[in-house]
Design goal:
Structural class: alpha+beta
Number of domains: 1
Shape: globular
Strand order of the largest sheet: 16-3-17
Number of helices: 7
Order of helices and strands: EEHHEEHEEEHEEEHEEEHEEEHE
Helix content: 25-40%
Length: about 300
């Protein structure tokens, strides 16, 4: 029996699909149904798909990169939702036993802030999400969470109205030490990365952004064996690093894209030592191509842990 449960609360859609055969194509059946249900919907929704792709979607020229690890766990993707709808999805999924493992905020083609999220099953009470804070507010919330025994494991920064820099983060109930650094230069980040590695911390998440004309970095370190990060321009280099580090027992856990001072796109990626996990990188694909890979890899028990676009 092949089954699929698809929930989209902001449009009051719940699909339960059961196919009496092994490896039934539930995704295709879901997409066929959604294409019919979404026929009368406004164009803005068609242009910001969640987990589907069709010839009316009018995908942009954006390319998608996904980071996977083999865990035998499945996830739910939510994409292109404004802050209010994303919060509604978050609360609905939380009430049904899901929590976010990765979030991303960016401006769509209309200049509106939208959100992506990856959700998986687990005890929602062990996880917290906080968004739309200025620098000081986020610092205060970070201290509050630390005092309650929660660690920051995913940090996100973006600009809101009037180009004010805002911050968001995901926290997990977990013991141990960790470090957060923000608004630091490239050279300072490199120094901290070396310092914390020598002190027994591993880099697990990084954000790179522009403050005026300067490049700034934010990073989260947890206690653990040293991780490795690289930053370059070429996507071919990223693929080569992935192949080499994977063969050395390192798993890719985080990737970000940013523009340098001259407006040239770069990537930064983090690998952690974990020979027991098999990792995969799906890169340089449009959304339709990417989702074909995603569906295939999810069948093979690979969990999406990071999704980026450029």
């Amino acid at each position: 029996m092949s089954t699929l449960l698809y929930i989209k609360p902001d449009h009051d859609v719940v699909l339960a699909i059961l196919i009496p055969m092994e490896r039934g194509d539930t995704e295709n059946v879901k997409n066929l149904i959604l294409n019919q249900l979404y026929e009368p919907m406004e164009e803005s929704v068609i242009n910001t798909p969640l987990e589907r792709c069709n010839d009316r979607m009018q995908s942009s020229n954006n390319r998608f990169v996904g980071v996977y690890k083999k865990t035998n766990e499945t996830i739910i993707i939510r994409r292109g939702l404004n802050s209010s709808n994303f919060n509604k999805e978050y609360n609905f999924l939380k009430n049904n036993g899901y929590h976010p493992t990765d979030i991303d905020a960016y401006k769509n083609d209309d200049g509106i802030n939208v959100w992506d999220g990856i959700f998986k099953q687990g005890n929602p009470n062990d996880y917290k999400m906080w968004r739309n804070f200025n620098k000081q507010e986020f610092h205060d919330k970070w201290l509050e969470m630390a005092n309650l025994g929660y660690k920051l494991f995913d940090i996100e920064t973006y600009t809101g109205e009037n180009n004010q820099r805002l911050w968001a983060g995901l926290f997990i109930k977990q013991e141990g030490n960790y470090v957060l650094k923000r608004d630091i230069s490239t050279s300072t980040f490199e120094s901290f990365a070396e310092q914390y590695a020598n002190q027994g911390f591993k880099l697990i998440d990084v954000e790179v952004y522009k403050a005026g004309n300067q490049i700034k970095w934010a990073g989260v370190w947890l206690s653990g064996e040293k991780s490795i990060y690289e930053s370059e321009y070429s996507m071919t280099s990223l693929t080569n690093y992935q192949t080499n580090y994977l063969s050395s027992g390192y798993t890719l856990i985080d990737i970000e894209f940013y523009f340098d001072e001259n407006g040239n796109r770069k990537w930064v990626a983090v690998w952690e030592k974990n020979a027991s996990l098999s990792g995969r990188l799906s890169d340089r694909l449009n959304y339709c191509q990417y989702m074909m890979n995603h569906d295939s890899w999810q069948w093979a028990n690979y969990e999406l842990i990071d999704l980026e676009q450029y």
